[in-house]
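Ops channel
N.P.: pipeline sanity check, posting one input/output pair.
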């Protein structure tokens, strides 16, 4: 059945989407908006003024900034720390959000439902008060979500010691969620146990009360955890990802991608280059940066490395790099940019490996292009994502000792040069084929999207 909206459905089919103002959350929400728009819904994006999306890239949507009376006052310390940021916006922004929604509901178009990021947990009460269905969009994997949901209880059992994250790196398996380990629990539970637990509990409770969940993942990838998911969160669940494969590279970048990366890749043979990027939030120490640089240099493999300005503590950009690093030490084998067109880089046939922090978008993008990974998780869902990449799907290798030049050099060779790299590539290529199938007519994500459209139309 064609689920695109026509005729009688056309009224009251405005969807209001509320993304979290962080790159890794903004991109999938805007991709979801495009998918739903292609099904005939009209889209309003309710957004904060900081990290706001660029409306010029989406002339087909209505953009509505949340009135920023409260925003100007977000303390800088709260913008830097995601736990504080989540708690802050989920208290101070709720009243202006309620007012915006109320206004939209009075318009001719009406509002069919509110779709928010799971971390906008405070909006469940707002939606309840307005009798407006709220659907949660979870931007990460099912496995990491399940781990998040049990984390506060695990912390109570004492199996995870608050304090230093390094001291809490227990190899013990999390019962019922194997092969996840206690050390894969979010490290914000060690740095800020009280705040971290509060955020996770509020997110889980509000998600249980939501009407439904939309996931940027696909059934074949997460089969392992779907039973546990529907036991704990009755749903319905719509697994309709990977979102970024519905349309060509989407332009919700907050930074400008360096297109010259692609012409640099053009000069290299297939599967020869390591792409290195740790997403939009990770910050590293200068000592770690130098270990990365020496690990890359010593591996003797070509690399394209994204070093985000400000991502090295105490530096603006590349100041700590050894003198003559690219020309003299690496002898032209490396290229460093501030931000890359990542999806195109991963799709380029010269890219043979991806050294990633395993943010969920990066992980999915790598899977979709069949590029094996080196895993260096840093916080939050990145740990469980990396565990699945290395231990469940077996499509990458974990760097277990943080950033340490010998281990880096050996892991790069394992992925790019050794036989092991071929095995990883074969496994990930198999999953890539599943992605291609799940999006085609009759495939799992295709069908789930049809179900989602019908579900929203039933409100
Ligand atoms: C954050 C969290 O860190 C992550 O764990 C969570 O799953 C989502 O929110 P982020 O750290 O930015 O996201 O990582 P990720 O989810 O991988 O998203 C990064 C996005 O930026 C990807 O879509 C990637 O393609 C894009 N990117 C990154 C670029 O386009 N160019 C770059 O140079 C680097």
């Amino acid at each position: 059945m064609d689920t695109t909206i026509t005729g009688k459905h056309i009224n009251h089919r405005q969807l209001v989407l509320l993304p979290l103002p962080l790159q890794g959350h903004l991109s999938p929400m805007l991709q979801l908006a495009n998918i739903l728009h292609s099904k005939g819904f009209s889209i309003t994006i309710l957004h904060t003024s900081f990290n706001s999306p660029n409306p010029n890239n989406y002339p087909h949507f209505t953009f509505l900034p949340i009135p920023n009376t409260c925003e100007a006052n977000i303390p800088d310390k709260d913008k830097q720390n995601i736990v504080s940021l989540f708690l802050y916006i989920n208290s101070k922004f709720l009243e202006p959000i309620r007012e915006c929604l109320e206004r939209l509901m009075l318009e001719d178009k009406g509002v069919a439902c509110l779709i928010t990021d799971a971390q906008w947990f405070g909006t469940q009460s707002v939606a309840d008060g307005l009798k407006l269905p709220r659907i949660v969009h979870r931007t990460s994997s099912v496995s990491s979500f399940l781990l998040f949901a049990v984390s506060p209880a695990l912390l109570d059992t004492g199996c995870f010691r608050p304090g230093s994250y390094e001291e809490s790196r227990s190899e013990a398996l999390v019962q019922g969620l194997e092969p996840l380990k206690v050390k894969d629990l979010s490290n914000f539970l060690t740095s800020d146990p009280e705040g971290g637990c509060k955020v996770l509990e509020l997110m889980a409770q509000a998600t249980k009360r939501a009407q439904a969940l939309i996931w940027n993942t696909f059934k074949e990838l997460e089969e392992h955890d779907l039973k546990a998911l529907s036991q704990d969160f009755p749903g319905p669940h719509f697994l309709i990802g990977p979102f970024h494969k519905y349309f060509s590279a989407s332009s919700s970048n907050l930074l400008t991608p360096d297109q010259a990366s692609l012409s640099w890749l053009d000069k290299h043979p297939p599967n020869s280059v390591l792409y290195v990027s740790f997403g939009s939030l990770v910050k590293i120490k200068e000592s770690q940066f130098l270990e990365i640089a020496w690990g890359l240099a010593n591996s003797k493999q070509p690399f394209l490395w994204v070093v985000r300005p400000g991502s090295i503590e105490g530096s603006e950009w590349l100041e700590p790099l050894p003198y003559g690093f690219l020309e003299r030490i690496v002898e032209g084998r490396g290229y460093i940019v501030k931000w890359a067109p990542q999806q195109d880089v991963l799709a380029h046939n010269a890219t043979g490996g991806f050294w990633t922090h395993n943010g969920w978008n990066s992980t999915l993008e790598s899977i979709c292009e069949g590029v094996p990974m080196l895993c260096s998780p840093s916080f939050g869902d990145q740990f469980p994502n990396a565990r699945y990449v290395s231990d469940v799907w077996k499509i990458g290798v974990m760097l277990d000792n943080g950033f340490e030049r010998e281990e880096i050099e050996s892991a790069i060779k394992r992925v790019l040069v050794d036989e092991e790299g071929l095995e990883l590539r074969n496994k990930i290529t198999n999953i890539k084929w599943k992605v291609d199938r799940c999006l085609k007519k009759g495939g799992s994500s295709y069908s789930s999207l049809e179900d989602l459209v019908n579900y929203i139309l039933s409100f």
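N.P.: looks fine end to end. The first strand starts at residue 14 and ends at 18.
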